[in-house]
Amino acid sequence: MQVKKHLTDIPIRYMKGVGPKMASILTKVGIDNVLDLMYYLPRRYEDRSNIVAMKDISPGESQAFIGEVLKMNSFRARTGTVIFELFVGEGTKKVCAIWYNQPFMSKMFSKGQKVMLYGKVEKAGRLNITHPAFEILEEGQDEIPLEIGRIVPVYPLTESLTQKYIRKLIFHATKTYSKEVNDILPVQLRGRKKLVDSEFAVRNIHFPCSDKSLEKAYNRLVFEEFFMLQTIMAFRRRQIRKKGIKHEAHEGLLHSFGNLFDFELTNAQKKCIKDIEKDMSSERPMYRLLQGDVGSGKTVVAMYAALIASKGGYQTTVMVPTEILARQHYITFSKIFMPLGMNVRLLVNGMDQTLRDTIEKEISLGEADIVVGTHALIQDNIKYGKLGLVIVDEQHKFGVDQRQALRKKGKDPDMLVMTATPIPRSLVLTVFGDMDISSMKEKPAGRDQVSTYWVDEGKRDSVYSFIRGEVKEGRQAFIVYPRIKQTQNSELRSAEHMAQHLKEEIFPELNVALVHGRLKSDEKEKVMEDFRNKKYDVLVATTVIEVGVDIPNVTVMVVEHAERYGLAQLHQLRGRIGRGKYASYCILLGEVKTDASYERLVTMEKTSDGFEISRKDLEIRGPGEFLGTKQSGLPELRFGNIAKDFSIMEEAREEAFSLVEEDPGLERPGNIEFKKAIEERFGIKVIK
Question: I need a labelling partner for 82 at 20 to 30 A (CA). Which of 59, 331, 534, 669 fits?
Fold first, then answer.
């Protein structure tokens, strides 16, 4: 919905019934002007449209009825509570409306008035209705009351803001300004999709004439918002798909690549590799999202893409969020590619300066075929000789700007974005709608499912005994804590404190090590390497091990205070085990205090399917928190619910991509208003 510019120039304080004091309260809920007020949507509705005759009132139900004021009574109870009673009747039927501690109510009514009441009627010797919504019906009144006799909007509130006040204010705004709404959707599109006009939508989203009118208004506003969003996606895709590098995937390359590994590639890996081959062989730059569950083998697919780039003389850069993951990838890429004569380099902060200077020079001269690193890869001083492929792993840890900064290091290089946090399709279309998508659900053969158990504090000794038993069998264990240091006022156990406790009190016969994000790079590397070489039996850690740790001998993952973690993070932590030939166990130690934490832990016990976990995570947290608006570039949605309104999203996407295909600059007369709305809402300039 695009509103004429001058509505944003009318401060809310100048609306009738507002003034400076109420304006400051309205500002707290984001209402600064008339436009904001019209965008302030109800969070739900109450159907008070069915008015029953007083003779048909049924105790125990919420209902609306009309009666005449018979008498009033105000008194103070023994407890000090002021009680106001209003007796309303019709014929022989009477109902007593009761308000507590609202003495001013006695001045609002007079005997003989017609009033409309709404609320739950109870029978306690007589019929009572406590704190009902009400309307005093004036003689000759031609408007339906705002509180009763209609579908009533219920708005989010803050201090000193009442439903009655905000309803009246918004009703006045829609009555006065809804004709000022500019219909930005192309006429042919509105006709094809059978969408109501903007004025109807604005009026009926707040004060619907019927359920059907509300549905039409909602669909119109949601479609319009999604249509704008998907048009932006179509523009991005068009810009990205301009001419880039045409790589060559030689016949037989995949076969020889497969021979580099001591396992058979899965069908899912082969399919994704074919997608990438097709992209990289095209003149248009690849811009693909590769999503797969933990342990599905995404790194192998990325390595094949790097091999294609290298065969054509191009460099590959692989950006990851943590040093531990960077070193893991460096080891993996080096093991496969260095024997082939390829130069694989690692670039992270905190390296020896002489070594760093050497690596930076090799990168700038194009002598480093593959560069693996952290944010260090996007620093201004890093220049690439011939960058042909950008790979971003664990993309949700990076912002949109960071991903694009790395891509700009080359001249339209191909880009492969990877995530082990599967994203529901509804969010894929919203946030990654400009990308091609490859998904991997199949895991390599021989990987057993990890058994997951949620246990409470009373089972702690049993958990420790279980770890002892696994170590006795030659296995190792992770124990993860939510924080590094103990704080005075927190009941949370910390990694540092518990590492000491476990060493001295619980596992004196075992070798226990500690790793966390504040250790120096060389210290972290030493601990991880020693643990990988079985010098330690138990590794106490923070979530620094969430990604990038692949140690097949570890069979136990204990997560302390598990109720404090999100589903995606718990699933990632669980993904650090079950990577070898041994049965593995994830133990979630947690005491639930909220419904959401209960749902998370139960979900972890029930399923190991990352795609199902992701769907549930979206359901619990909502899209903004699921992705992080800042990280994803997800614009704030005023109307639509990405999950609930997914079918509208798909329709809007199809129409938006067709529009941009037919009129790339939105220059046709019917598209001019829409173009202006796009440019104003997103702060961009639409060009062909």
Answer: 59
